[in-house]
Design goal:
The protein is α+β, with helices and mostly antiparallel strands. α3 (about 130-135) packs across α6 (about 260-275) and α3 (about 130-135) crosses α8. About 25% of the residues lie in helices and about 25% in strands. It has helices at about 10-15, 105-115, 130-135, 165-170, 175-190, 260-275, 305-310, 320-335, 365-370, 385-395; strands at about 1-5, 30-35, 50-60, 70, 75-80, 125-130, 145-155, 155-160, 195, 205-210, 210-220, 225-230, 235, 245-255, 280-290, 295-300, 350-355, 355-365, 375-380, 380. It is built from ten helices and 20 strands. The protein has one domain (about 1-410). The longest helix has 19 residues, at about 260-275. A ten-stranded mixed β-sheet has the order 2-18-17-7-8-6-12-11-3-4, with helices on both faces. The protein is globular, with a radius of gyration of 21 Å. This is RAI1-domain-containing protein.
Length: about 425
């Protein structure tokens, strides 16, 4: 059965929907709040934020029943898709996983497994790759707002995307046309992947969006060490546990003129960071017709993508994004971890408004219970994980072990030392 991934939204889909602006925080609903202004995109940063090449820690698979196992069972291999492939093929057999809240549960299980294997790296941020992509691309986002929930435990911030019930229902109830166009991205993945690298080109199996293969990496932005998890579409040839064989698969409308070219170049920003954050070195894009026929396939080296837009009208600059991300994460930490600012288990809400900036607020108790949604959680963290952290805190109270949280504060100058920025990862 084909390993199927998150929805691939083409630019024509986005144009059908009105921009979703996140409302400003209602001061009557929170008792502590602050804000961070929108970054400028007119000038490059005077001091670029260094980014450390992501290092894989562990991978895991979800099967068709959404059971998680620490294996490569759901990993797929890249094969060249047939010319003119029908991206609507198998649509009626699509097994579509219902939309759900942006929980960290799978990633937290991976972190727990890493600890069991004897490694517990010092980190300041734990989140999914999709959340980090939203944060880093915010300087160039002029349409859609977003919200995050944040918790601080033992010096580590946990970030999850906040999606309320209304938004979940909206995402589940797509129009037939939107649903079909979303499927095109999944079908492209099936045409491009197989269970073995030696399988000839062809349909890789019916789409089941329950099935996923995910990689968990450790990286660093500025002085902030992070553990990030994200789905990986496939690998090229053989997989040796490193990310140098990983591929990301995308679809986009065939470029028919200057307007289409500008749309595609804007999409490249998210394509770039989605792969950059996990250390995926290659992106394969399938260009299609409006009715879902594959026209051509183009491979892009992730680190070379910024050069494709450099110097063009409305070009984006990854250094502006990284500097903003460094500033954003530092700001979040300085406020959330301020002594006496919140009780243990508290949840903060971040709201991003395009062209305005972000606001941070400490949620009231009734709002925190809303985040828990009747599940066995402390805030948005599963109770089993929260208690595991508390047990670790007690056992490590008098030790200096390499553990999640309690991160030492390096100086900025240390970011340029040997080994922090391998060749190719300083843009």
């Amino acid at each position: 059965m084909a390993s199927s991934k998150r929805a691939t939204s083409d630019s024509d889909i986005r144009d059908q929907h009105a921009a979703r602006k996140v409302p400003r925080l209602d001061s009557s609903r929170v008792h502590a709040s602050c804000s961070l202004s929108y970054p400028s995109t007119s000038q490059p940063p005077t001091r670029p934020a260094p980014f450390q090449r992501p290092r894989p820690l562990i991978s895991f698979s979800y099967d068709t029943n959404r059971q998680l196992e620490f294996s490569e069972a759901a990993m797929r291999y890249y094969v060249s898709p047939p010319s003119g492939a029908d991206l609507g093929h198998g649509y009626e057999r699509w097994i579509r996983r219902p939309e759900e809240r942006g929980r960290l549960d799978g990633l937290l299980r991976a972190i727990s497994e890493i600890r069991k294997r004897g490694t517990d790296p010092v980190v300041s941020i734990v989140s999914w790759r999709g959340v980090m992509t939203k944060i880093l691309t915010a300087p160039y986002e002029d349409r859609d707002g977003w919200e995050l929930n944040v918790m601080a435990i033992r010096g580590t911030l946990y970030l999850e995307e906040f999606i309320d019930d209304a938004r979940l229902k909206e995402k589940d109830n797509m129009t037939p046309r939107h649903r079909m166009q979303t499927y095109y991205g999944y079908a492209f993945e099936s045409w491009c992947t197989a269970s073995s690298p030696d399988v000839p080109s062809g349909w890789g199996g019916d789409v089941d969006t329950n099935v996923q293969w995910c990689s968990v990496v450790k990286t660093k932005l500025g002085d902030t060490r992070m553990v990030i998890g994200g789905e990986v579409d496939c690998v090229r040839d053989r997989y040796n546990g490193h990310n140098d064989a990983m591929l990301e698969l995308k679809t986009s409308m065939a470029i028919r003129g200057h307007r289409d070219e500008m749309r595609f170049e804007k999409k490249l920003l998210k394509f770039y960071f989605q792969s950059f954050l996990l250390g995926v070195p290659e992106i394969v894009v399938g260009f299609r017709t409006p009715n879902g026929q594959l026209v051509t396939v183009q491979s892009y080296k992730t680190l070379e993508i910024p050069r494709l837009v450099r110097g063009k009208q409305d070009a984006w600059d990854p250094q502006i994004c990284l500097s903003w991300g460094d500033r954003f994460l530092t700001w979040i930490k300085s406020n959330v971890e301020q002594p006496g600012n919140a009780a243990p288990g508290s949840v903060w809400r971040v709201k991003f408004t395009p062209c305005v900036g972000v606001e941070l607020a400490l949620l009231r108790e009734e709002e925190r219970r809303e985040v828990e949604a009747g599940e066995d959680r402390v805030g948005f963290l599963p109770r089993w994980y929260y208690e595991e952290i508390q047990d670790l805190s007690s056992s490590n109270a008098h030790s200096c072990g390499d553990t999640f949280g309690a991160e030492p504060q390096p100086t900025r100058s240390s970011a340029s030392t040997t080994g922090v920025l391998p060749a190719g990862w300083q843009i």
